[in-house]
Specification:
The chain has about 220 residues and is an alpha+beta fold. The protein is built from 5 helices and 11 strands. It has helices spanning about 5-10, 15-20, 110-120, 175, 210-220, and strands spanning about 40, 55-65, 75-85, 95, 100, 130-135, 135-140, 145-150, 165-170, 185-190, 190-200. The strands form 2 sheets. Strands 1, 2, 3, 4, 5, 6, 7, 8 and 9 form a 9-stranded mixed sheet that branches. A two-stranded antiparallel ribbon has the order 10-11. The longest helix has 15 residues, at about 210-220. The chain is globular, with a radius of gyration of 16 Å. It starts with 6 loop residues before the first helix and ends with a helix.
């Protein structure tokens, strides 16, 4: 794995072309794998025991990248994230990607992620260029998450649904792709010490599944 100081060097050439080469063109799976350890990424990836999940609920999230400066490396882009509404019953006030459960009416995980982005932050699907899928992520809360990376038109202005999202903000991609910002934290959850990635940025505490998915993006783009 490259050290964070080498991320800029790893990003030579067009970052978007690199992502399209290294991401999955199709979802790595459609139905939830029968053996949960088939998940490459998840809350178990840092040595946590797999939780007793039944049933596992399929979900999809959009990992939105926005070109904010001229250039080809990570420094030219930011990642769009949300602060979930404090009144929500699940994952209240946490930093998250736009996304949620895959409905029966959704044609694909991509369709689900785009629908949720429209509903949560007012992002028209026409302003998103899908680039590919990351590895599926298994969360301890019982979700099988399929993240799809998409390039968002910089002209987009978020219109968050106040019932779901308190804030929409951006983080420079070069900050998130610097392994020196990938901290290892732990806390007790349901009587067990759980380990997870965290990437504090200003007032925002990016952690858990969101940080784990960002870490997977780093590994997909910058791994040797």
């Amino acid at each position: 794995m490259r050290a964070g100081s080498n991320v800029a060097a790893a990003g030579e050439g067009d970052l978007i072309a690199r992502l399209e080469r290294r991401l999955f063109r199709e979802p790595p799976f459609v139905t939830v794998p029968a053996a949960l350890r088939d998940f490459v990424t998840g809350d178990h990836a840092l040595g946590n025991d797999l939780p007793d999940i039944s049933p596992v609920r399929p979900a999809a999230v959009l990992v939105p990248l926005v070109a904010r400066r001229d250039g080809e490396g990570a420094g030219a882009y930011s990642m769009l994230l949300t602060q979930r509404a404090a009144a929500l019953r699940e994952h209240a006030a946490q930093v998250a990607f736009p996304g949620g459960k895959i409905d029966a009416a959704d044609a694909s995980p991509l369709a689900a992620a785009l629908r949720e982005a429209r509903e949560e932050i007012g992002l028209p699907s026409s302003l998103v260029r899908p680039l590919g899928y990351l590895d599926g992520y298994l969360s301890a809360s019982g979700y099988s998450i399929l993240p799809v990376v998409g390039l968002v038109d910089p002209a987009f202005t978020p219109v968050p649904d106040p019932g779901e999202v308190d804030e929409v903000f951006e983080v420079p991609l070069d900050f998130l792709m610097d392994v020196n910002h990938h901290e290892r934290h732990a806390r007790e959850w349901k009587g067990t010490l759980r380990h997870y990635y965290a990437m504090p940025y200003g007032k925002h505490y990016i952690w858990g599944a969101t940080a784990g998915i960002i870490r997977n993006l780093y590994e997909r783009v910058y791994a040797e």
